[in-house]
């Protein structure tokens, strides 16, 4: 499964009031692992950032003057995210800004270009009700190293969110097995009865048992002790 983790920085809090995107960062996951492919631009918003926004991202108005405008990069952006599942923290905020920018370029809303949009803030609130669920709070809770995050930055935050997402969803992957079958020369499906084949039992090595125990401990930590397997006798 191809997924894109996305984050933006903006001149302020309201796209409807004219605030614009000044940075957009994306990292690609395939089968829940980083591929190394990224999409990252600083953008000239053609307006100054609010003072409060500057305190958050630290990206000066002067730095952005020679950067491309959104309409110059939107087609490249859409090509990068097309047909992927998007992962965004507080998705309504980022999507609202992106949709406003796309509309000004005559393009369809973001939802029309992707398979699905997942909001990790909504996921975290469901898993940790009543707790702080900012990106920093989740990094601390899940053991994700965010020491490099002195200010908000779209690409760095997307990379951190990718780790947070994997921790949040650990153990939730669907375990799917196709029916054991092959095909004849005409393409017709032929079922194979695997019960006639003897199965050998391979016992785990001590190192493998220790590694498995560490995975269980990580899952227990990520779920805030809500796992149940340790309550059953082995």
Secondary-structure map with pairings?
Blueprint: E1 2-10, E2 21-30, E3 33-42, H1 51-57, H2 70-81, E4 85-88, H3 91-104, E5 116-119, H4 120-127, H5 135-142, H6 154-168, E6 181-183, E7 189-191, H7 206-222
Parallel strand pairs: 1-4, 4-5
Antiparallel strand pairs: 1-2, 2-3, 6-7
Mean pLDDT: 87
Structural domain count: 2
What is the top-level CATH class of the largest domain? Alpha Beta
Order of helices and strands: EEEHHEHEHHHEEH
CATH structural architecture of the largest domain: 2-Layer Sandwich
CATH topology of the largest domain: Nucleotidyltransferase, domain 5
- CATH homologous superfamily of the largest domain - what is it? Ribonuclease H-like superfamily/Ribonuclease H
The percentage of residues in β strands lies in 15-25%
Total DSSP helices: 7
Spatial separation of the terminal alpha carbons: 34 Å
Task: Report the C-alpha radius of gyration, rounded.
Answer: 23 Å
Question: What's the β-strand tally?
Answer: 7
Spatial order of the strands forming the largest sheet: 3-2-1-4-5
